[in-house]
Amino acid sequence: MILEIENLSVDLGEFKLNDVSLKVNRRDYVTIIGPTGSGKSILLETIAGFYKPLKGRILLEGRDITGLPPEKRCVSIVYQDYALFPHMNVFENIAYGLRKKESNASVIKEEVKRIAEILGISHLLHRKPTTLSGGEQQRVAIARALVVKPKLLLMDEPFSALDVKMRESLRKLVRRAVKEYDTTVLHVTHDFDDVFSLANRVVVMKNGKIMQTGRPENVFSKPSNDFVADFVGTNILEGVVIGKENGLTLIRVGEHILYSTDHAEVGERVRVSIRPENVTISNEMRQTKNTFLCSVEDIRRGTNLVWLTLRSGDLRFKVVTTPSSIDTVDVGKNVFASFKAVNVRIVR
Length: 348
Fold this sequence. Notes:
Blueprint: E1 3-11, E2 16-24, E3 29-33, H1 40-48, E4 55-60, E5 63-64, E6 75-79, H2 90-98, H3 105-118, H4 134-146, E7 152-156, H5 164-180, E8 184-188, H6 192-198, E9 201-206, E10 209-214, H7 216-221, H8 226-231, E11 235-245, E12 248-253, E13 256-260, E14 269-274, E15 280-282, E16 290-301, E17 306-312, E18 315-321, E19 334-339, E20 345-346
Parallel strand pairs: 3-8, 3-9, 6-7, 7-8
Antiparallel strand pairs: 1-2, 1-4, 4-5, 9-10, 11-12, 11-14, 12-13, 14-20, 15-19, 16-17, 16-19, 17-18
Helix pairs in contact: 2-3, 2-4, 4-5
């Protein structure tokens, strides 16, 4: 265990933390998600030492750092706006914090060279930040944070100002860098791609409280409450178990019967979750157990994904798919929606 947060409360007026407790293992990559104002950034900045909590403790490697100033915590933080020194070149920016720990110029040079190579910015060391692209500036900011070898790296929406292609590229570089530096990360984000590309754990927050923690696949497929389900976009349906068939659990949801590989007792009232990306739509009937003829109620098109709302009688659910898969689909038309029994998760 590298980080333990115990009953942490902070009150900044509009933004608060309410009795937050969290444990983070060494080498964890934790993404923190939640709506705006949920306390994500306050949590990071309190760990970094920028706010004094009303109550609670922050332990790093078993040492109470709650009252220590930021520079004594062995914690680095990266923001979305880079926060580079414009009068310094890239080498000087990266070396800034390191110079406070290391006086040997050759060691500083080697350490800066190492992190610059990992993050692909060796050719930029002589440049000023104002001459760099957003992605290059963020790599410099991450290099500056990692080169001091922090016990904990905090990142507050570091990719939000970048385009999609640059985000994908930077995720790969960050993944390599934190592995090379054996770093534990807490990363605030609004982008679910960050969660699934980088994290082994995810924390969901609302109104200054932690609503659920766990592995991304578990939180997204088995949300613990309606808020989490709605926030992560999971379909939650209520039904009753009516029987068993060939190892599958049969669940009546309204006028429909769903098949699940999860276990529940006959007669038990349950809630089931179905991830929207696990629903397949087509113009033809499929042999999958859970297949329904649906009408298309709504379509929202994004750059790379399309969100649909489908209805089959009293069954209404969301679907996420790609633009190429719905060329002939339109609002008011009928389609077949299907999903595997393994993707019907009983959450109760």
